[in-house]
Amino acid sequence: MEFCPKCGTVMFPKGDCFECKNCGYTKEMTKESVSQYEVSEKVDAKESVIVTSDNIQTLPKTKVKCSKCGNNEAYWRLRQTRSADESETRFLRCTKCGHTWREYD
Ligand SMILES: [Zn+2]
Ligand SMILES: [Zn+2]
Q1: 94 is in an annotated binding site
Q2: Ligand 2 centroid vs 86 CA: distance in angstroms?
């Protein structure tokens, strides 16, 4: 929510700006106010898929077949989703080809 710095009235988006309906003051829309939601979505998606090479040594392994190369071993880790209705999801990464996927129970 944006407020007019001149009179304190709530401002409404108009093109690339916010406009005060009361006194006519306009303010340029900041990038943060436009893409706040978008950015958090992107970060979340990135986190959930990639197992970085930095922490791969510490990950446990499991016997599971990689759908990509047929290898029978993969690193795995659990990730708690933010939504309360969803259970933990296990992410797997093939030890051979690096293929990453998520497992549903
Ligand atoms: Zn105003
Ligand atoms: Zn593989």
Answers
A1: yes
A2: 27
Q: Is the pLDDT assigned to residue 14 strictly greater than 80?
A: yes
Rounded to 5 degrees, what angle do the CA atoms 94, 98, 100 make? 70
The answer to the question of whether 17 is labelled as a binding residue is: no
> Is 82 inside a domain boundary?
yes
Read off the pLDDT of residues 76-91 as tens digits, 9 standing for 90 and up. Answer: 988 766 666 667 788 9
Known binder of ligand: residue 66?
Answer: yes
Looking at the predicted structure, is the pLDDT value of residue 30 above 60?
yes
Print the domain residue range for 83: 61-104
Ligand 1: centre distance to CA 58 (Å): 57
- For the record, the structure tokens of 49 come out as 């898929």
- SS3 call for 74: strand
44 and 9 in a single domain? The answer is: yes
Cβ of 75: how many Cβ atoms within 10 Å?
21
Q: Return the active site residues.
A: 85-86
Whether 55 shows a pLDDT value over 50: the answer reads yes
Q: Which ligand is nearest to the CA of 25?
A: 1
